[in-house]
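Final report, Chapter 2: Outcomes

The project's central promise was a pipeline that accepts a single protein chain and returns its three-dimensional structure in a standardized token representation, suitable for archiving and comparison. That pipeline is now operational. To close this chapter, we reproduce one record exactly as it appears in the project archive, with the input sequence first and the structure output second.
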Amino acid sequence: MLQTTTNKLMTIVSVIGFMAALAWPVAAQEFRVEGAGLEAVPTSYHGPCPGLIKLQGKIQASARGRVRYTYSYSDGATGPEGFVDFEGPGVMYVETTWTLGGASLTRYEGWAEIRILSPNRYVSNKASFDIGCRSGEGKPPARQARERQETQNAVERISSRAVSVNQPSFTSEGQFIACPIKEARTEVTTSLPTPWWNTPQIGALERVSIQTIGGNKTLVCEYWAYGRTVSIMRTLPEGVTDCSTEGTGFRCR
């Protein structure tokens, strides 16, 4: 009788141990962001305005899944939002750029950081940098005068350049809204006296972001044209409460 009871107890202990062994890997594979870091390249920019700062980051996750993130800046701005898909534990790399500096801003000290939105909240280090730029450096005096005049008086016009408008598409994951043009054309529409002229500039889509403008969430498509960023934007579609950036557009639900 004692031997039978002992055998039953050993069997129960063995089963419990086996079940615990099965449960352990599941617990160890909980999907979460374990780390994030950001670096500014270069950390100190000295040259003609505007200056371009690359923000190179990395995100470490514990398992397979999608990580949503955004950027936060020292001037109070945020965006663009993005995501990376992990196939398993490891590190994924992300990058964005910040262009700043001009005639009214020749020196600036700032920082940026990555903010993880899901599956858990996490904030990276602050990637600090400084800019000391010289407006109009290396340009002929006549060109400098023309550009100052254009800055003060010109009205910019953005138009499409031989591209079709992308209509929203619907899938089980929500509505995808693409930026309406792949390239933006900017030119001076103010009449110029002879012999002055202006060469229209073509800018490609550089990045997409979701910003709060006038208290409303706004979809923003940013184009690099004429040595500056030119943006076109729209509010969220009617009935939509949440959007995220995806490739060359936005995924809205």
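Archive annotation: Residues 23-27, 143-167 have pLDDT under 50 and may be disordered.
This record, like all others produced under the grant, will remain available to the consortium after the project formally closes.
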